[in-house]
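Pasting as-is:
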Amino acid sequence: MNLVIIETENNSRTKTEKLKSSKGLMKIEGEYLIERIIRIGRINGVTRVFCIINSHEPELEHYLSTNNFGIPTKLIVPHQEGYMHILFALASVHNKESFFLASTNSVFLEREFSEFVTYSLLREDADGVVAVTRHLNDKKPLGVAMNDEDTILKFNHSKEGYSWFNGGIYYFSPNILSGTNYTFHADISSIELFMQSLIADRYILKAFSFSKIINVESAADLIKAEEFIRLNK
């Protein structure tokens, strides 16, 4: 069981706000965000971590390449290809093993992630599981429509008519990349497009609800994340 952590965008916004560090190297309760995700993954049974980060993040690259996280950690720094291209390139690994996917700056409750892992591994009737939440600090949320059995029917870039939104944390069974040819789908440049393509190809995706997921993009987000964790201990 693997964990893929992606650094999806540059840090111009965070650095403009004088945080002066990669999103993954911002701290919450004395722990780097990316360190926190790796630790939570490890204690929940993840056996290997792949970190896909931007080439313009030397501090994060140095941190990941020089520290021991108690679990095999492979660092991937694409210089031209997008992170989705790299994800598809890992198909030779992930078409045999299940994997979780999260962003470097995602903050969530540890107990909810543990419940997410347990739920995901028990869903033999699904090809993947998507974390959904009603509370997400995202200017462009991805709405999620699902039926009474929590099967996802559609994703949509709209707030109108949606009460659940994509939380940016995923579980994928080996079926997702087994026998697919996504490597050559140049139009799939984001995880949102990938998810929509899975629905179009009739893969079964289930939704699992989190109380809140905070994607830290600013100093204000970091304060909210720390308060969220403190109030839910």
